[in-house]
Design goal:
This protein has 844 residues and is α+β, with helices and mostly antiparallel strands. 35% of the residues lie in helices and 18% in strands. It contains 27 helices and 30 strands. Strands 13, 14, 15, 16, 17, 18, 19 and 20 form an 8-stranded mixed beta sheet that branches. A 7-stranded mixed beta sheet has the order 1-2-3-7-8-12-11, with helices on both faces. The longest helix has 21 residues. It starts with 12 loop residues before the first helix and ends in an 8-residue tail after the last helix. 39% of the residues are buried.
Length: 844
Amino acid sequence: MPDGEMESSSLDLSDIRELLVESLGDSVMWHSDVENKPLELHLRDPLPSKVRVYLVNLVPSGREGEFKVNVRLPGHEGGEEDHAAPDRTGGYLTMLGGYHEHHEVFAFWDDDLHEEYGSVSPLQVQAETIGEAMSEGLATQQRATAGYGGETVIVAQPNRVGEALQMRDRLIKIRTLLHEYLPDGWRENGSRAQTIERVVDVFLEATPRDRPTEERREMAQQVVADELGNTLDTIQDKFRGELWEDRDPGSEGYQRRYLDPILEEIESVWRDEETQIEKLLEEDEEPDHPLITYLEESELPVSVYLFSAPPDHWWTAARYNVLPFTEDNREYWEELSTGDVVLFYSLTEPENTDLSEQSEGLIGAAILGEKYSKDDDWWWEDSEDAESFEYVARFDRVFYTGRIEDIDFDLETGISDKDDSVVDDELEALTADLLDVSTAHSLCHDVFDERMPDEEPLAAFTYDDGSTETIRPKALISEMASSLREAPPVNIYSEFSGSIDEELLEGLHFPDGDKQILDQIEAALHAGKHIILTGPPGTGKTEIARRVVNALDERYWWLYSGSQITTATSDWSTFDTVGGYMPDEDEDTDGDLSFSSGIVLNRYKDRTTETPLNEPLVIDELNRADIDKAFGQLFTVLSGQSVQLPYTKENKEIQIGSASGLDQLPEPHQYAVPESWVIFATMNTYDKTSLYEMSYAFMRRFSFIPIDVPDLPDEDESDEEDRLQDIMSEYLSSWDEIELEPGDDEVIAVARVWRNTNNPVDARAVGPAIVQDILGTITQYPESGPDLEQRLTNAVISYIFPQLEGVPERRRIVNSIMASPDVDEERLKESAKEILQVSFEDDE
């Protein structure tokens, strides 16, 4: 660099800090005020997560071809003997840096090698290195006598600053690993130490991993030799005899015998066990907790809040798995979104002044699900005071530090029904092992220089610009992680005691009305029975079951977490319903066998997160399955008893049992059957011959509810046509899916086909849904299309004949249908021969 370019930089330091922030662009998630020293940055991967840098101007050092920065730290007071150290707390990568406004480069020194700095001890960098960075974008310089064992100065143009920060972070981590694997005195020679660090850096980051270690090591040594203007042999000398003290090189030589195995061990840690690096750096390792994983890996924007409430509020919140809000606090409720994370802050004094004070602090956290407004009175204040908690946000996943299993989850018993001493005991269990408020605030100060945001009932963790901040929440969760256990996000311990909306089956028509059906279903649910809906095909059995389970989930979301509909088959076995061993999909396990849960067990626990669930199961056409083969051990479970399976999970036999029978939260090998869980099954009484019979042992675990078809008048009855018209009118009034209104001739023709299908054989009928399909089809033909006889014949073949497959009396039923006035008898006969294998020779 020409002498004329050895001039000083005199930018305002706040401008230098602002320039660094701008240079890092979108990598910056948050930064401190640029007016203040030092500059703190929170950065996105792959850059170091937290950086603290003290920035000053680069000025000529007074020696030829050299620049410097004059170190001025907040602790410096002046004088030759004055020393100070930068702030190295909070897990930040701390650096000292300089900037030159004319050459437009940053320089960064290695603070990891300095205990403290004298106020008259500058840090230097060669002008040649600055010139190389101006030309190449990034350059390094070894300072053999600086710090402990020498340091590597990194100089970069603004558009390469991110790489410089990554390199500085890597070199510190590599140095930590080298301390573990190399002889103790490896840094006594500064030039050697820097060369070793840089060679390992290049080996890890810039050599192809599909090449042998020796070849990669030589490639890395050659890169460093070129950087320093040395020969390969000069670089390799630094890895030979003196480094290894009194070790014998053997026939392989020092590098192959000692260095190459060390490089392989370092790479193993570097690639596959990065947490070990953090341990070696003596930083607090972040615990593996689902909430931390969620905050780090969520693809959607997530806000994090602190919710403050009295302990008796948390008692009810735990039983119903929701956050409560009054009308006055509705704006907080509206602020929340599905997927947000809330930390639970329990106050000292209960709302009910008759209860005892509790410890104050954090007792848990949750990932939020949907928001609802409620009508029922849950909270003590709902019935005692005028104020009502009308708005709630449910939990999708929830975690507690206390003995949550010691709380009474029976929702039939409210807090006002209990003796105060009993409630006090449960509140003490709920707040056990909490993170006390003082420790929580101290943690937040340590990592973020601010306390918890507990000024409002619901307060967000944010940066100054309002964006979400997760540093404090993650630190708090990490501190609680050892005691923060996952609990069911729905109440699996309480029985169903609710009601079913009388309008639930609106749009469906039943001969005896829908109230009778709903009353039977509600009674069965209250009795704890599973339910089988029986009847001919097309009577709406599956639709009834679907509406009921959906209504349970929508209205009683504190009990239910969804539902599942499936269709039974003759191939079903306990492998399908309960589960069994399957090869593990995880590549690391090399296809080892592990337990894979079946469709029933998956209603009790999420396969991915293992979060307890309560999902009612709808099994369509249940009697298509061989019940004994398909349900096996579930017979015992359906009767409310526990059963052990011949499989293991985490070296424990898998257990299925009633949730109320557990004395602790469900463990990984346990599947807790919620007290309100229910199977809705459907069974066609008019079905194929391949059906299996159900044993009495199975049947007594269910309530059978018939779904009938109407009584259709015989042809010889005097008011036959009027009655058919009346019946069809009742159904037509509820069939919104039929787009074009059918004519009277079409309606009566279809009604007579329906009558002639159902009446000839007892207990063999089709339901109104099939009639609806027929009417909906024949009314869709164009005006120039076929006549009614052809349209109705086509519909009979399409919709009724498939229901007759395998029915022994099908010829008798087909003959009856052919007697209908508006069908093509010969076409129906030919189709019956082909589709149903019906012979009409005897009729001839």
